[in-house]
């Protein structure tokens, strides 16, 4: 089906719907108003006739009734007595019919007795009817004058006008359809041109999105590989950080042991200095022993001299002097040997002290170097901690980037799907 015909049908359907709704509402309102107006006129007419019958006649005759109610196009009239018997009727075959026993119109009879005058709607012989009635008295008897009309008679003119209106409406709809088709055909060319432009644009954008979708898939694949590598790198950095932490602990323990070793060396240096001082004291003692030996030698000589002067036991004294002299000689020799040994020890200790002082100076430098190494290791460990944090942050950021790429890819696919739907709609519109 061509698009011009589609729009013509659409416009016609819309117009028919609107006009149909308007006509239906207007017809219902108009028919209700007409019904009220006509029935009220019937009621007023019946009141006037009842009043005339009550004031102008002493007795109602059938000839009088027939002369008054001869218009067959306005329904039918009848008169009921107080028992509901039909005493007069436009259709003479209905005379004598009882409204309760024969017509089975109990509701109508009850309404007549209750209201005396008015309008009543009822169903009789499977047809809706309207009754305008009024009571009157004649010869002290109560009668009811009723003007009844069927629904088809009441709205005959309106229904005829409605039928004419429907014919006019159909002709008008056909005219509207033709005009709509011509208008749709006149604007169809520009509309098709716009549809063609939209179709080309949609095709180009869809193709571009398809290419970008492929690129997004490749980017997603690269991002997945990058994420995997970053996770491995993060794991390696975590392991390296753990190793650095263990190495730092071991290095700190080593530094503490070396510092204790340096402290022990310094203690040993101090003990060497104490030994040197003790050797000096021994050297002084040896000097005193030497002096004592010299004194003993002098005493031995003096003893020999004195022995030659006095008449004493020279032989005993001489032996004592010889022993003292021998003791002095041995003490002197021992002192000399001790002096040589002490000098050698002192020289060795002096060399050791000098070497210890040199070692102490070197140890200070080594200790400073170890402190520097410790600081470097601490700084390196802090850098590794920072690198670990950066690696973890990079890993989280990469996860977010990958999630963003996935969302972008899904959005591109959704846009492409919508564009494909739009392209199909343009093709349908062209058809």
Task: Describe what this molecule looks like in 3D.
The chain has 431 residues and is of the alpha+beta class. The chain folds into 2 domains: 3-154, Beta-Lactamase (2-Layer Sandwich); 224-418, Methyl-accepting chemotaxis protein (Helix Hairpins, Orthogonal Bundle), CATH 1.10.287.950. It contains 6 helices and 5 strands; from the N terminus they run ααββαβββααα. The chain is rod-shaped, with a radius of gyration of 72 Å.
Keywords:
431 residues; alpha+beta; Beta-Lactamase; Helix Hairpins; 2 domains; 5-stranded antiparallel beta sheet; 6 helices; 9% strand; rod-shaped
CA radius of gyration:
72 Å
The percentage of residues in β strands lies in 5-15%
Roughly what is the average pLDDT, rounded to an integer? 73
Cα(first) to Cα(last) distance is 7 Å
Structural class designation: alpha+beta
Please summarize the sheet with the most strands.
5 strands, antiparallel
Number of domains: 2
Shape: rod-shaped
Q: So what's the oligomer here?
A: single chain
Helicity range of the residues? over 70%
